[in-house]
Amino acid sequence: MTRDLVVALSGGIGGAKLALGLSRILPTDNLLVVANVGDDFEHLGLHIAPDADTLMYTLAGLDNSKLGWGRQDETWTFMETLSALGGEDWFRLGDRDLAVHIERTRRLRQGESLSAITADFCRRLGVGPRVLPVTDDRLRTRLRTDEGWLDFQDYFVRLQCRPVVRELAFDGADHARPLPDLLAALADERLRAVVICPSNPFISVEPILAVQGLRQALSACAAPVIAVSPIIGGHAVKGPTAKMMVELGMSPTAAAVAQRYGNVLDGYVIDSGDADEAAQVAPMVTLAPTLMTNLAEREQLARVVLEAADVLAPSKRRRDLVA
Question: 163 with 146: CB under 8 angstroms?
Answer without folding.
Answer: yes
